[in-house]
Amino acid sequence: MSDYRHSPELPWGYWMRTAxxxxxxxxxxxxxxxSWLSIRDAFWSGRLRMCRGPGQVQEExxxxxxxxxxxxxxxxxxxxxxxxxxxxxxxxxxxxxxxxMQAEGLVDNDFRNDPLTAKPSAEGIxxxxxxxxxxxxxxxxxxxxxxxxxxxxxxxxxxxSDRRAFEAAEIPGxxxxxxVRERIxxxxxxxxxxxxxxxxxxxxxxIWHLPFPDAMLRDRAFRWMMDRSDRWxxxxxxxTEAGSSALTQHLLVLQLARQPERQGxxxxxxxxxxxxxxxxxxxxx
Length: 285
Description:
Layout: E1 17-20, E2 26-29, E3 35-36, H1 39-47, H2 55-74, H3 79-86, H4 91-103, H5 122-133, H6 146-152, H7 162-168, E4 177-184, E5 187-194, E6 205-212, H8 215-226, H9 232-242, H10 244-258, H11 280-284
Antiparallel strand pairs: 1-2, 2-3, 4-5, 5-6
Helix pairs in contact: 2-5, 3-10, 9-10
């Protein structure tokens, strides 16, 4: 169980100091006087007591923790969908991660909270801030949820031209893959755009496209995608590596994972409907 005595408003490890060895190597020194190569190393090997091992293992697991904490903190994506989105459908692995993070004190851990639905603890929020601030340079362009929301503003504004905003933006250090709303080929649509800043003329390319019968359904789907903007880069890579149909199938699986199972007679009429972006709170209000 965690005994976190620091501010969750600041990144985990802000209290540590740096030191330079006679050989010029800069290290991070914790409260116990132990030296680490970085804040991430101090968290991984010191706080979590993990073996240093290959750097790739450390970074991929910390990136997974960042995705988990960000999703749990926002509280929008339920565990079944999160399992398919982050853990490739491995329910045992997803449940284990939740219980392990509660045992480590990164999720509310008074043991009266169900770790499958609990929120990050104060330390978990501080860890979220640290992991987001110290990501490896090659991940700098990968958005963490709110980045895309700030990039485009209010997703409820159906009249804004998302493609023009993307084309006008300076992409280096920004979003490598972006979903936009547009009217194309006579239909209201959502497109997935990408642009390589290394190109001589870095033009936006459409790599995935989905038309809708009207703007209302398109905007409902777009709000659903905005709530999951931390997954956009993974979805974009899915298209570039496996084709557009792979993303279409993946989005359908996520929708099915969100739906409660039918219970026979008496099941609410909307329980089995595929409603992208549907908010049950709207029906109850």
